[in-house]
């Protein structure tokens, strides 16, 4: 009868696993992923018509709306990713807070409504589509940045990553969309982010499970 | 099992009653994991030696079955093996290993739809190479005393106390392994101690 140690060593030998990349290779790969995601967002913005589409919005309002959304995106990303030297995710309460960021972003954008009159009226379908179609890019980049499997709460981890990715898409959409009407913001800017967070949380277990359990 | 006097976690040996829950053991485990992640296949044996006794002990309490504990230990180590390419430099391996083991225990419990039971005689398969025979017997007796004491606690409190007071993880490490804040861990440990104290006082 074999000992537990013999069984474990034999099982590991039967399923070879690749070793870790060198530090430089890791940095290059991560930087490449980030640049690709940013490039994808920029291309999407250009195809949609660029920042000229937001010409009707006062310049000052543009600075704090886009700037504030960008700060929220940075904060969401920082909170959603695991600590630097850890194989484990941030605490549950922190991830849940990040998952609420779509509402925070919506409130931030909508606070511009009383400050100026919207140049035109739109329901938000195009903003919805733009956000929903471009967010997967940064989501995949963040998932790749995260790298390690999550044995604690994979659904919350991917939900938070989706919220952070959505926040970056929201920055890009803010550069394009000049509207701050609460109804438009809710449908066109908040709703796609909420759906993204829910979808991210739903696939978390599959995306972040250990490769050993997958085989 | 009955005892002549209630055993508190402090009487059982302070923060951790097992001598292998110290800085040198952690450093050996972390070093073995770093070497293994970098491609030194022989380091997996050293990693097993550092992690397996802990994981067996931990899983034995949570599953109430020595064979289930061995399964959990094996699956945990294989998951660690499978994820070595993604091991973060400088990350501590112990919280990660315990988190994987706990997740496997929970998955197993859901599959079997059983209540978690505590072991009544489960012991680590391999003890420290430095242990004398009389130390092994004393360790076994202390271990059963702890298992009995933890029986009455809810699962979340039981796991937390197991990690902090038995396995010797720091509050920060236990918080990491459980996916909660340090404050949450402290509250759980405090509540567990209150429940344990109330239970022993009630038994008197």
Description:
- The complex is a heterodimer of chains A (215) and B (204).
- With 215 residues, chain A is mainly α.
- Helices cover 70% and strands 0% of the residues of chain A.
- Chain A has helices at residues 4-14, 23-48, 59-80, 92-99, 101-110, 125-134, 136-146, 154-176, 182-202, 204-207, 211-214.
- Helix content of chain B is 65%, strand content 0%.
- Chain B has eight helices and no strands.
- The two termini of chain B are 16 Å apart.
- The model of chain B is unreliable at 1-16 and 119-132 (pLDDT under 50).
- The A-B interface holds A 3-5, 7-9, 11-12, 15, 17-21, 23, 82, 84-89, 91-94, 147-149, 151-153, 210-213, 215 and B 37-39, 44-45, 48-49, 52, 56, 70, 73-75, 77-79, 81-93, 95-96, 99-100, 102-103, 125-126, 175-181, 184.
Which terms summarize this structure?
heterodimer; A: 215 residues; 11 helices; B: 204 residues; mainly alpha
Distance between the termini of chain B: 16 Å
Number of strands of chain B: 0
Strand content of chain A: under 5%
**Overall geometry of chain B:** globular
Share of β-strand residues of chain B: under 5%
Could you outline the blueprint of secondary structure elements for this entry?
The complex is a heterodimer of chains A (215) and B (204).
Chain A: H1 4-14, H2 23-48, H3 59-80, H4 92-99, H5 101-110, H6 125-134, H7 136-146, H8 154-176, H9 182-202, H10 204-207, H11 211-214
Helix pairs in contact in A: 2-7, 2-8, 3-5, 3-8, 4-8, 5-8, 5-9, 6-8, 6-9, 7-8, 8-9
Chain B: H1 23-37, H2 43-63, H3 66-82, H4 93-112, H5 133-150, H6 155-166, H7 171-178, H8 182-203
Helix pairs in contact in B: 1-2, 2-3, 2-4, 3-4, 4-7, 6-8, 7-8
């Amino acid at each position: 009868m074999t000992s537990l140690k013999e069984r474990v060593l034999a099982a590991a030998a039967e399923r070879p696993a690749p070793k870790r990349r060198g530090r430089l290779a890791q940095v290059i790969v991560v930087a490449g992923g980030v640049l690709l995601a940013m490039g994808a967002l920029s291309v999407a913005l250009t195809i949609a018509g660029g920042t000229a589409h937001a010409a009707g919005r006062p310049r000052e309002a543009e600075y704090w709306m886009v700037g504030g959304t960008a700060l929220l995106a940075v904060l969401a990303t920082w909170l959603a990713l695991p600590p630097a030297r850890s194989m484990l995710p941030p605490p549950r309460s922190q991830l849940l807070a990040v998952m609420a960021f779509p509402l925070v972003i919506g409130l931030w954008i909508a606070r511009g409504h009383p400050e100026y009159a919207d140049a035109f009226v739109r329901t938000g379908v195009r903003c919805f589509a733009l956000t929903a179609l471009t967010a997967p890019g940064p989501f995949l980049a963040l998932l790749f940045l995260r790298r390690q499997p999550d044995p604690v709460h994979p659904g919350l981890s991917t939900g938070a990553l989706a919220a952070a990715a959505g926040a970056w898409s929201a920055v890009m959409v803010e550069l394009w969309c000049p509207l701050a009407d609460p109804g438009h913001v809710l449908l066109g800017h908040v709703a796609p982010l909420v759906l993204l967070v829910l979808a991210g949380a739903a696939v978390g277990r599959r995306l972040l499970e250990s490769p050993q359990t997958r085989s | 099992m009955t005892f002549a006097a209630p055993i508190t976690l402090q009487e059982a040996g302070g923060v951790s009653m097992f001598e292998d829950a110290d800085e040198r053991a952690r450093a050996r485990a972390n070093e073995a994991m770093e070497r293994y992640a970098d491609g030194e296949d022989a380091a997996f044996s050293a990693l097993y030696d550092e992690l397996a006794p802990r994981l067996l002990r931990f899983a034995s309490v949570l599953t109430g079955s020595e064979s289930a504990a061995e399964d959990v230990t094996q699956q945990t180590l294989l998951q660690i093996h499978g994820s070595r390419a993604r091991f973060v430099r400088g990350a501590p391996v112990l919280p990660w290993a315990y988190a994987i083991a706990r997740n496997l225990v929970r998955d197993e419990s859901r599959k079997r739809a059983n209540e978690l039971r505590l072991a009544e005689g489960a012991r680590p398969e391999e003890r420290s190479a430095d242990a004398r025979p009389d130390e092994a017997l004393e360790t076994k007796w202390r271990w059963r005393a702890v298992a009995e004491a933890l029986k009455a606690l809810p699962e979340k409190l039981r796991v937390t106390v197991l990690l902090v007071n038995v396995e010797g993880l720091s509050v920060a490490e236990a918080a990491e392994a459980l996916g909660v804040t340090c404050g949450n861990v402290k509250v759980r440990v405090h509540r567990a101690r209150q429940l344990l104290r109330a239970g022993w006082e009630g038994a008197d």
